[in-house]
Amino acid sequence: MTSKENEHKEDLESSFLRSEVMSYVQFYIPNEIAKHVVSEIGEIGLVQFVDLNRNLSAFQKVYVQEIRKCDEIERELRFFRSQIKNENLPPIKRDINHNPKFTGNETIDTLKEKIKQHEIKLIESNANQNNMNKSYVQLIQLKNVLEKVDEYLTDSNYKGDSQKSDENQIEIPDSTLLEHTPNSTKNFRLIAGVIERNKVYSFQKIVWRALRGNLLFHHIEVEEPNIEKSTDDGEPIYEDVFIIMVHGAELVNKIKRICDAFNAVIYDVPDDKDTRNKNMQDVNSRLSDIKKVLDQTRRTRVDQLSEIQKDLNDWSILVRKEKSVYGQMNLFKNEQQSLIAEGWVPTNKIDEIRSTISRAMEERKMPTSVVINEKETVRLKPTYNITNKFTKCFQSIVDSYGIASYREINPALYTIITFPFLFAIMFGDIGHGILMFLAALVICIKEKQLALIDNEIFSMLFSGRYVVLLMGAFSIYTGFVYNEMFAKPLSLFSTKNWVWENQGTPDEEGFINQSGDLSQFKNAYPFGMDPAWLDAENKLIFMNSYKMKMSVVIGVIHMIFGTILSVFNFAHFRSAINIVGVFIPELIFMISIFGYLAFTIVYKWCTDWTGGNPPSLLNMLINMFLSPGNVEEDEQLYSGQATIQLILVLLAVICIPWLLLYKPFALKMKHKNDKPLEINEDIEEEYAPKEFNFSDEFINRAVGTIEYCLSGISHTASYLRLWALSLAHGQLSEVLWNMLLDMAFNFENPVVRTIAIFAIFAAWFTLTVAILLLMEGLSAFLHALRLHWVEFNSKFFAGVGYKFTPFSFRKIIKRLREESKTN
Fold it and tell me: Which residues form the signal peptide (predicted)?
């Protein structure tokens, strides 16, 4: 086997470092098995089809009628779902990985017929129930009217005075009208009915004005709401019984017309009490009968909906799968006896796809005359990174910034380590890290059960559970480096390294200031920050300096690492021009200035400045450019510093024109004999290759050079956020401890102290979780995200690719389940 074949074989092996090798393939599928083949491809989920009918409108494509048929079935399924929701039936728990398929002689046509029969029966049940509900509502309204009118008339007869004061009664100034009692039917006509409560007062005013006050109006509230709900907001409808007494048929006709306008219902109420009682008995008897029938109708309807609910999810999936199959087939070209499809497939999966299709066709006892050929194309290839439950969230962090170009180095591989590490630098605390780690560990252990929780915020936390787990683990490590646990130092190793000298005299409480004698200092603290510093008076000054310089060193290392990664991209794509014209000058420029700054920080740390005056590194960096080759004696860090700094400045200055000019002119020489680009394929503009244009390349290179040179300063300064957030996190943690727990420990009475510790600990723990873990954790997460997206990725990551989106039933089912949750 030749070395070239070995290299090709290694490229085909899946790796998280680079995206999968993709091939453009062509399928020849006989018409009679086309749908089954495409369904099997959807089950495999490894083919991204290309639209070969871009010039046709949606209505001109072959399988429009089949898609409309699926749309009609989905409408019926949405109708079922709305009816189930209205009945508040409990959801049926199902396996999230369940993937139903047509079995035996089942087809979309048989399923459509089955669903149609269920719809007809359900519509008939709804119609019967609606009719029964209307009858029931009318009887209830009639019962309320009879009861309220009888109460009102009986009460009026009992009082014997039609002018009785009532807040629901309108005063009638017509003296001739008031001479009659309400039950005097000789000159009065009684009209009674039901109206919605929110319309009573408007109805009252209109009737008063229309009849010019020649009426007696009374309304009584009905306590129970109507069984029907408002069509506007779904709220219960409350009603009032109204009673109107007027003279003459003409006024009665006016009232009826006003009642029609207000949707008020008038019921016939007899004047005779015995007749009213008889009618009431009849209404109660009919109500009892209709209630039984109504309950039976509802039970039958609920049983029918429960039967539908058992298969509803499976039907939805089957219909959506069928619809998506026809949608993909609309992308194919139709020949006489076959369909021609083209698309992208991972090269190492072509044989697997062939064998899977052949096996499926044999099981169905169908001819397996499906031809799959690789085809040359100039289309830009999609990016396909294989992920698992651990790497998926890290890949999402990178993809949110930009999809990697085809076969470009995948930053997600390095993000697995660098992202939680940078987060931990800002969040470093042993106690907080343990809490975060344990919370994420529980979610990881119980992930199968917790995956079923339907909550948007928790779903975000669940999808990033492994990121949070690593963030907690790294925070524990940096907490040991800072030697902080809930803002308190730990003395894990010997603390007898210092010899202390008293300074001054003791204060009123007997405390005295002490200073460490460096001349008698013994061994350094083995790991992490010496606890002596964390209790010192100048702790903040020391930690400020330490964390600020540490942030710069880590930031420079991170950026140089990103710059070095770019050479692996250039080497992979065999781009010597980019190696010489981009990587080398960028690396020299970065190391000459910022790498040198990191070196001087470490050198200054490693030098014993006892009795001396350490130089300011900030002034050194400024003077390095303002007065190159000159270093004052009291500012000198090491011998020969002026010469080295002069050489570094010259190298940095040389790199600027090198970055600007080499690549555009080298590419111009390379492409000077190129023929005009001819594309014989129907390719979307965004996926078509671009011709070399010197002007565009020179402008892009100029912008890139300016951006890289200036961003070196801004990006280095941006890493100071590591220092700022770390300092803020430590100070917040210390404030919470001093303001709460210290107060509890200071109580002299042991009983009070014990009670206070329990009570105050709860408040301290709640604030720790809410402020330090959640709010500060989110802040550190966002800052770590920015450092990766801007400062790190910009050094080597183009991110101008497009994602491989295969035709996959698994993704369709997942999307369908998400839709059903929102609905």
Answer: none
725 by Cβ neighbours in 10 Å (0-12 / 13-18 / 19+) ranks as buried
As a three-state string, the secondary structure of 655-685 is: HHHHHHHHHHHHHHHHCCCCCCCCCCCCCCH
pTM over 0.90: no
Q: Is the dihedral of CA 458, 460, 462, 467 positive or negative?
A: negative
- SS3 (DSSP) at 216: strand
Q: What is the pLDDT of residue 510?
A: 59
Per-residue pLDDT at 515: 66
Provide the terminal-to-terminal Cα distance of the chain, rounded to the nearest Å: 58
Q: Is 804 buried (19+), middle (13-18) or exposed (0-12) by CB count in 10 A?
A: buried
Residue 438 CB neighbour total at 10 angstroms: 12
Burial class (CB in 10 A: 0-12, 13-18, 19+), 769: middle
Q: Is residue 659 within 8 Å of 704, Cβ to Cβ?
A: yes
Q: Quick one: how far is CA 274 from the chain centroid?
A: 69
Task: Report the alpha-carbon distance of residue 149 to residue 162 in Å, rounded.
Answer: 14
Residues 586, 596: Cα–Cα separation, whole Å = 14
Could you give the 3-state DSSP secondary structure of residue 257?
Answer: helix
Say how far apart CA 108 and CA 324 lie, in whole Å. Answer: 13
Shortest CA distance to 410 belongs to which of 391, 428, 438, 424?
391
Domains and CATH numbers, the chain: 15-52+331-384 (3.30.70.240), 136-154+186-295 (3.30.70.2750), 390-674+689-795 (no CATH)
Question: 204: closest CA among 167, 238, 158, 152?
Answer: 167
Question: Residue 183: which pLDDT band, with cuts at 50, 70 and 90?
Answer: very low
H or E element at residue 241: strand 239-246
pLDDT band for position 497 (cuts 50, 70, 90): low
CB contact at 8 A, 643 and 629: yes
Quick one: angle between helices 617-626 and 641-670, nearest 10?
60
Amino acid identity of residue 787, one-letter, is L
Mean pLDDT in residue range 577-601: 94
Q: How far apart, in whole angstroms, are the C-alpha atoms of residue 540 and residue 533?
A: 9
Rounded CA separation 564/586 (Å): 9
pLDDT digits (tens, 9 = 90+) for 719-767: 999 999 999 998 899 888 888 887 777 777 778 878 888 888 888 999 9
Q: What is the 3-state secondary structure (H, E, C) of 439-473?
A: HHHHHHHCHHHHCCCCCHHHHHHHHCHHHHHHHHH
Q: Is the pLDDT of residue 500 over 80?
A: no
- 160 exposed, middle or buried (CB, 10 Å; 0-12, 13-18, 19+)? exposed
Could you tell me what percent of the chain has a pLDDT over 70?
Answer: 90
Burial of 806 (0-12, 13-18, 19+ CB in 10 A): buried
